[in-house]
User: Fold these one by one.
Assistant:
Number 1:
Amino acid sequence: MRRSGPVTRRIGSLLVAGVLVASACSGSADDTSSPITAPSTTGANRSTTTTAELAEPKLSSIDLDTVEVADLKSPTAMAARSSTSDLYVTQQSGQVRLIKVTTSTSSSTPPRYTLQTMPVLDLSEEVLSGGERGLLGLAFSSDGRKLYVDFTAKPDGRTMIVEYELGDRTTVDTKSRRVLLEVEQPAANHNGGQLVVGPDGYLYIGLGDGGGQGDPQGNGQDRDALLGSILRIDPEGAPASRSREYGIPAGNPFADGEDGAPEVWLYGVRNPWRFSFDADTGDLWIGDVGQNAWEEIDRLPSTNGFDAGRGANLGWDRVEGSHPFEGDNPPGGVLPAFEYSHDDGCSVIGGYVYRGQVIEELRGVYLFADHCAPGLRGLQLDGGAIVDQRTWPLDADGVYSLGQDNAGEVFVLLKTGPMLKIVEPTASDN
């Protein structure tokens, strides 16, 4: 039975041993053998470190806890809004919920989180929910005055990207509704669903390959298809044609439409359920859900803070992770920075590079999870090379998503309802 009031959940110190890029992780007596690996760089377009010596592994010295901050119904995504510490969460059945965050002037007093009773937006009458369908993603414009949502629509299951205005309010103006994009979905799975407003202010949209086994329609390697891609559009830009409600950023790799769809930013993904930009570097991190054998994490470095992943081909369905599937890695294809087999999970949940202040030692560590395996996972990198990895056991199963607030702190959303914040252990936990 869940206790009432704030709940602290202990995350232990289970280490996961594996093969690392350019460095091996030192094991301990408590380590468990795992097939998690960073794949060979053969044939990959990957950024690697140029330093002679890599940083020392540090994850074994970091202990973490979680505190329950809200209890929702099948929360699927979380977003922070600029100029406020409040958090917004989607529920799969179609509601956007607001969590008010009250902070104290005392640095020793943690914030207080209060889930508001009335939804910010209720789309339950038009959302087709269940399985991999539902209200799947949300994001805010850079100024926080507009809300974007991604949901599966009744009756046919198409993906809808819709904009609403909030202005200075905490509830949407439903009359302001503007449909930005509709994408037909040939199957009930691999809908993607992630929405992110990038460091460039444009809207990034994750779309799976259309579902079915093995990408039967070949969308992953079809640059003219919106499915199997991450798109980048400008909701405020001049429409590229009368058939569009958005502009095409000039920097899109196929902006002229000659070599691919103008909206496509990168392609060759199977189901990029969750992806994020590193708030400090602009690097793009993607958790791409695998087929039958391998889950992958892709890291696409930025050279100027705004170009991460431009025109990249992540290889699906030629490869699953770094392994041949329908062929070999295509020329120039980007292999994952990290992968693990289905002996250690079944569905990767992409996360965030921690940039918060609460856990100083965790800064720069990429945190993610797997829907089928309890635990919060972390990767420590040095110049693009993985130098350490770890799994902290979590007192819950079924992670749906991770979220990050404006302060860089990380939250975990569980299928069963709890929303947890990652924190340091308290003295009483030691």
Note: The longest strand covers residues 173-183.
Number 2:
Amino acid sequence: DEDKTRTEIFYINNSRPLTKVDVLFVVDNSASMLEEQQKLANRLASFVDSLVGVDWQIAITTTDLSGGPYSTNGKIVNMVGTSSPTNVLTRSTPNFEQVFLDTVTANGTDPRCATDTTKCASGDEQPLEAIRRAITKRNSDNLGFFRQSADFVAIVLSDEDELSTGEYLYDPTTAEDVLSTAKGAWGEEKDVTGFGIIIKPNDTACFNAQYNNGGNYGDFVQHFANITKGETGSICASDYGPALTSIGQRVKKYATTIGLSAMPVAGTVKVTLSPADPNITWEVVGQTIRLSDLPVIGTKVTVTYDLQ
């Protein structure tokens, strides 16, 4: 019965990417981070160039949740220099690399902070709590960023740990807290992956270089990356290009979710790849198909299923 059976076709190419990924950059805007923000902003191309075949969009928030003048409280910021107001970057945004640079600069550390502490963002960085709050604002301040059938990636840039030290005395937000909030919001349908450019645990040379600026090992961000199959790069690197390229390649590898237009009947879904790839498996999760890996560019993916 054609009324009860549906066939959908997807292609992996640059013009019509197969997978959707929503990327949230969480930028530490505290006093010590001016140089690092610039290095991140200058190397966005290294990240997006790795995402061939991925329908990405990018948003930015900060680690300041203090409620002060520089606090974002999990709200994604407005992009700077776009032709119309938006808080999301896509591949079709004109001059998106320059917009990203200008937005990170505008929402990063205030240069006046060096001489006037009233111009400083909070030094109690909370990158994981910022991610968690961003999710809770998905239907309010952040409406439109978290797309249906899109995986979610969070990339933290910070030279400190959650609440600066990560000590449980201060009740910091954990990776498990973030994932619990994500599961409450989306169930199992959205993959969540964490990445970081941090002082990597046990990197004593980087720790010593950053210590006078209040730096600390990013244990909580590292744990978030570990349990979500993400990765971290060193904040002490002179060039963030290689780290962002590696992060982009990892994002692409795990960005393998196909959103269907309707809910399928359990047990009726059939997926075929052309050209075939026997190494790629798939599973049905709600109204999505999750592949075990991203097929090669040019692959045609055909999904047939019965409608509920």
Note: The two ends are 13 Å apart (CA to CA).
Number 3:
Amino acid sequence: MIVKEYSKMSKEELAEVIAGLKKQYDDIKNKGINLDMSRGKPSKKQLDLSMPVLDVLNSNESLNASDGTDVRNYGMLDGILEAKSLLADMVGVNKENVIVFGNASLSIMFDTVSRAYTHGILGNIPWSRFDKIKFLCPAPGYDRHFKISEHFGMELIYVPMTKNGPDMDMVEELVRDDDSIKGIWCVPKYSNPQGYSYSDETVRRFAALKPKAKDFRIFWDDAYCVHHIKFDKKDEILNILDECERAGNFNLAYVFFSTSKISFAGSGISGIASSKENLAEIKKHMSMQCISHDKINQLRHVRFFKNINGITEHMKKHAEIMRPKFELITNSFERELKPLGIAEWTDPNGGYFISFESLKGCAKKIVSKAKEAGLVLTDAGATFPYGIDPNDSNIRIAPSFPEIKELKEAVELFILCVKLVSAQIIYEEG
């Protein structure tokens, strides 16, 4: 059977298609389903992979770190040495450039912005004393990044994403001429939500930036550094700190990371990597904030994973759970939507999301239609600054949490909503 693209159908043909789709939609709506794909949460099977983390320490064995530090007590503000080594190997940096924190890298990002806001960076004027400061927000991007900047009253500047990373011509021009621009949010590997990884040229251009603001910083969120779905096609990117050093911009980047979607989403360990000068300033502020983070949890993770090879093998188990879910979605889109010419989507090699592009002006209606029938998706526009997608076309698909049976139901309903909304838009505009 030859399937015709919606845009090539007559009004009569579209009207017939819409009537059939409405009937299918009403039938599903009457079933009263309840599905949620709004956030990129690990599934129960993924969390179960890390249950042995809870068994590696017990009351009958030593709770001393490799240097003899008793992890039950105060001290080691910047983390135990073996945890530094483990996270450094995971991200590909030197352990001397790492501070280990608590369970969430998002907290580190918030605190890093907060310190700059109240005390400035390396002797520069605190951001709070400026009438207006700005932050670059490559989009589609991570909504929680944008919310941090918005929380501190910054002006969010939209920078379009490409398959190689942010539009670097735009980034270079903006930071060169405007000293009120203080930073940029980046997810350099398997970006949220598109799953793109920055090209070598993009990383080098970031490292070589010449910002007018002396306190400009790259907020490099390496959240998915080991989150490969297709291990035979895994992406590799250049190390931003190495490239900054080569370019003579030693202090330009902060790198953030965690094990939140490697071990437990709410009980992992996290860290920041940067230049020695940046880290010295961060530790000075930390000494006022806390005496130490949870070193027992740090030791627990080290003894479970042991080394980077242990993390790699663990992530292969995650991939075995994640890959069929991604394949289910992309194969369904390819079969059901591609012939109709009404959508595009990404097929990433790793990360947690698929970025879906509907026809212009359809995303909000698709998300609303899905919710009305029992499927909750990330709000349309959430992946853009201020929640405003200029084309109203991007929808973030989060396949990880539902089990395959539920995911199949969710995808079928989503596709139905895409077809119905798209057909109605084309009919109305025709």
Note: The radius of gyration is 23 Å.
